[in-house]
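In keeping with the milestone schedule agreed at the kick-off meeting, the structural modelling team has produced records for the first pair of proteins. Each record is given below as a sequence line and a structure-token line. The laboratory manager (R.T.) confirmed that both were archived under the project's standard naming scheme.
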Amino acid sequence: MIIINKDIKDIQSSNNYIALGSFDGLHIGHLSLIHKVVEIAKKNNGKSMVFTFKNHPKTLIDKGSIPKLLMNNDRKVEILKSHKVDIVCFQEFNLEFMKMTPKEFVEFLVFKYNVKGFVVGFNYKFGYKNLGNVNFLKSLQSEYGYELYVMEPCTYKDEVISSTRIRKALEAGDVLDASKMLSLPYTLSGEVIHGRQIGRTIGFPTANLKYEENFILPKAGVYYTNIMVNNNMYKGITSIGNNPTVDGKAITVETYILDFDRKIYGEKVSLSFIKKIRDMEKFNGVDELKSQLERDKFFAQNENYMSSIRI
């Protein structure tokens, strides 16, 4: 796979077919575009390409309303590579791009990247003030000689899948629904740091995750998770919240890892949310908390590992 972070690589030697979109979550709807662009590129002996922005456009337009991340660009590259995409371009969204008219944007792609075909979603908008749309792309086909494929919306539970809907599901604690719309479990990555170590005193030592704060957190509660440590997957019980039973203040993400007894402070782990176990509760002391944790552990022991999820 070729990854373009700046306009420095010449890929005009191939006929390129390009999928356009924000691709902020690479959910089922986004993946329908990815599958289509890979299909038509192979059919035409060309290269499949995904073009998106390195930074969210709102970082320039409205910093106060930047949505929380569902995944970072490194994670997107992993997923796109697994789906056999040939070229990924992460374009910096800057003032120059913000002011680009829809026609200038099309010309930029056609001539800069030798684009022979576009794949877009049914509601795709682009160019200055989002003035370009699917009908505008259709109107330029004869002038620039490209193919155009418009993908229909993908639905889950009779509603259109979108990144906004996935964020709302996570905020409500519906991690299973979010994962089904993403096709993969929602995942947070970060370094394991020292916490208050209260869990250790009751037989449930936890790994405290230092997560990136620009990522969305599922609703406070206890979740069955899969945690990747040194390329090995383990089952986990993850608590998101302020630990009310022991008078915690700050919001933490702490995971008790089943069948694991090694200290991993300073190591990077990935935490995938599979299913919600229960809401956050305040118990009448640590003995009652420990009894509940035993029940949570039993729940996790009887769940399967999850690497992908089908609707």
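The second protein of the pair:
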Amino acid sequence: MSHRSFVEKKRKVFSWLLAIALGFVVLFSRSAWEEQFLISDLFFVTGIVLVGAAMAGRLWCSLYLCGYKTDTLVTVGPYSVCRNPLYFFSLLGGIGIGLTTETLIITLIIVVSFALYYPLVIRAEEKKLQKLHGEDYERYAAKTPRFWPSSANLYEPQEYTVKPRIFRKQILDSLWFVWIVGILELVEALHEYNLIPCVFKLY
């Protein structure tokens, strides 16, 4: 998998551009739901639950994928319930982060952006896997959902060899979800102390 498509190469660039754009929006805005504490608290708590699920899910994926991505077709663990579990859990994390802003608009922007771009990434990666693994991948794709997990397919081996150095790096990558929530809480505090102006409100 050394030769990545244009869409794959720009995946991180797209993610960073979206994050920066939303960061500026969050920096100068506040939630219009703030005065309705039940709704804003419900958004935040739901967001935290989804962020936690996303982190756990991505670590679960990394446990099976680390060090095997380029030379082995991984079909067990999270990859037995769907073919793209990393992206599924990333979407959960994105929705969770959106909800911790206590707004529906930012959450919707994240969902729509994901829906427009990541199917292109998934299709590009699937073409590569098809070329790399041939009939093995075809059999795997025929019985495993592309994106939405099916718990009925879950299969986990009794033992699995993990490559700890690679897995350690993935742990740090997953922590970004928590760090972003922390940054959002810091921005909210700066708004409350009038250290950053609130230019507009978002629902």
